[in-house]
Amino acid sequence: MNNEKSRDARQNADSRGKAVQFIGKSVEDALNQAAEQFGVPVAQLDFEVVKDTTFSILGFVRKGEAVVRIWPASEQGELAEAEVEEVEAEPQPAQVQRPAVSASILDEDEGDDSEETKGNPPELEDVATEVLSTLLDKMDLIAAVEVVDQGGSLDPQTNEITPMVLNAVGDDLGVLIGRRGETLRDLQFITRLIISRQLGVWPNVIVDVEGYKEKRAASLQALAKRMADEVRETRRAAVLEPMPAYERRIVHLTLRNDPDVYTESTGEDEHRKVQILPR
Amino acid sequence: MLREMIEFIAKALVDQPDQVRVTEVEGEQTSVLELKVAKEDLGKVIGKQGRTARAMRTLLGAASTKARKRSVLEILE
Of A94, A140, A234, B59, which is the most exposed, with the fewest CB atoms less than 10 Å away? Predict the structure, then answer.
């Protein structure tokens, strides 16, 4: 998948001028460096992800390094002249929280109502944690709420701003997940609804319980790849179990760059399921 | 205490929280939670296509599993 992207990048290099490569601890980090270097907001960068750290659907912590290739806009003539060069990130061990993409755009470009400005307000962490904790307490559950991910970075897989991820841990929280995660879906809905009443915006926040969604995402990715292999071999479509929308999305995203298969959802409402078909 | 959960959610969603009343009618196996809100706020606790009411019922069901007593939510008009 990544090889194919970098091949595309090389092919496109001629028409878009010379590319400059940035290496960072994450794609977001690399993009932030590029934006700083060129003095433009991240949103205006023409970039290609050469190598991502780890595949991450929900925006969980990434490891390793990421490489992005930037095509400087034509106005930045002197940089466009530069050979493809590698700009190494300085080792920044303490810098786990780089300024989020959305935040940096807000700083430079207030009042712009492009999609990236819909970043989460800074109070979200406190408000969301408080709302979820209170809700669980009223449900008579003993649980602690942890912020797994601050969100606000750019997910190269979807080109969207990653959500803040809250995770509830405690005793006997299985009741909060329910059949096919239905209870968890409603818990997330109510939590978001209450937060939106307090903050005046619909929050980009994911509610998880005992890491259920994270584990589920990993097993869905594995399932999708396994089924894709089967479809590749047999040349016959495979149909997965009915799943909620965000789970179907994980399957679609996992296979969207597969050269041999494509995915489609069929059926209505609760019976909607993903089909994997040979190309 | 499930009464408190419904009260917390309802008060957080409406424009007139002081008009929110939740009364618990205890039965032998089932208790009924009756939710009353200001007329103008009815839509807020029901939601689009009943989504909010359904989510409250789901959470009530989950919480009452642990309490070993069935609870149902009735929204009074």
Answer: A94
Residues 191-210 on A with a CB inside 8 Å of B are 193-194, 197-198
Q: Does residue A82 surpass a pLDDT of 90? A: no
- Gap between the Cα atoms of A145 and A123, Å rounded: 16
Q: What is the mean pLDDT of residues B33-38?
A: 97
d(CA A105, CA A102): 5
Distance, in Å, from the CA atom of A151 to the CA atom of A132, rounded to the nearest integer, reads 17
Mean pLDDT, residues A52-74 taken together = 51
Write phi, then psi, for A141 (nearest 5 degrees): -105, 145
| Distance separating alpha carbons of residues A256 and A251, to the nearest angstrom | 8
Tokens at residue A151, please?
A: 């969100």
List Cβ neighbours of B50 (8 Å cut-off, separation of 6 or more).
none
Q: Which of A162, A254, A160 is nearest to A216 (CA)?
A: A254
What's the N-to-C CA distance of chain A in angstroms? 16
Paired tokens of A6: 């970098």
DSSP A30-54: HHHHHHHHHTS-GGG-EEEEEE-SS
Nearest Cβ partner of A193 from B1, B13, B66?
Answer: B13
Q: Considering only residues 95 to 154 of chain A, which have any Cβ-Cβ distance to chain B shorter than 8 Å?
A: 131, 134-135, 138-141
Q: What is the pLDDT of residues A178-198, one digit of tens each?
A: 988 999 999 999 999 999 999
Residue B52 near residue B13 (C-beta atoms within 8 A): yes
- Token readout for A96 is 């786990």
Sequence letter at residue B57? R
Per the structure block, which two tokens stand in for B69? Answer: 């007593």
Sign (positive or negative) of CA dihedral A11, A17, A23, A24: negative
Domains assigned to chain B: 2-76 (3.30.300.20)
Q: What is the mean pLDDT of residues A259-276?
A: 93
User: What DSSP letter does each residue of A141-178 carry, written as one string?
Assistant: --EEEEEEE---SEETTTTEEPPEEEEEEESSGGGGT-
Q: How far is CA A219 from the centre of its chain?
A: 17
Kindly state the average pLDDT of the residues B30-39: 96
User: Which pLDDT tens digit goes with each residue over A150-180?
Assistant: 999 988 877 889 999 999 999 889 999 998 8
